[in-house]
Design goal:
Order of helices and strands: HEEEEEHEHH
Oligomer: single chain
Strand content: 25-35%
CATH architecture: 2-Layer Sandwich
Largest sheet: 4 strands, mixed
Number of helices: 4
Structural class: alpha+beta
Shape: globular
Low-confidence stretches: none
Number of domains: 1
CATH topology: Alpha-Beta Plaits
Radius of gyration: 14 Å
């Protein structure tokens, strides 16, 4: 995760890093056609009532596009049925992270638009 600016330190209320699967999971159909569970890597709660699901990947995986399609659909669905929290997501692959070296969470959100 990039270093947080002072403003972001005030905007980000908390983030949860998964050293084990997070309690929230999404079912999706994997590349083999089977139902699998997807557990997000990080959840970032922002002060403006936004929750960002952050998915990171170091190695290409056939299931990534399927997971991200499911996550995008989930965000759209949950945002449609409630207005208390706005959910969003960002996919961060290691190669692009090392190449572009975002220096803030905002740069991460603005620069990593794959699967949007």
């Amino acid at each position: 995760m990039p270093r947080l600016t002072e403003q972001e330190q005030q905007e980000i209320i908390r983030y949860i890093e998964a050293d084990k699967p997070l309690p929230d999971k999404l079912d999706y159909v994997n590349a083999d056609g089977d139902i699998s569970n997807y557990y997000p890597d990080f959840l970032v709660k922002l002060s403006d009532n936004r929750m960002v699901v952050v998915e990171t990947k170091g190695v290409a995986d056939l299931d990534v596009p399927l997971k991200m399609q499911r996550l995008r659909q989930w965000c759209e669905d949950i945002n449609r049925v409630q207005a208390d929290v706005t959910y969003d997501f960002v996919f961060v692959d290691q190669e692009s992270f090392e190449e572009y070296k975002p220096t803030s969470f905002r740069q991460l959100m603005d620069g990593f638009r794959e699967y949007k």
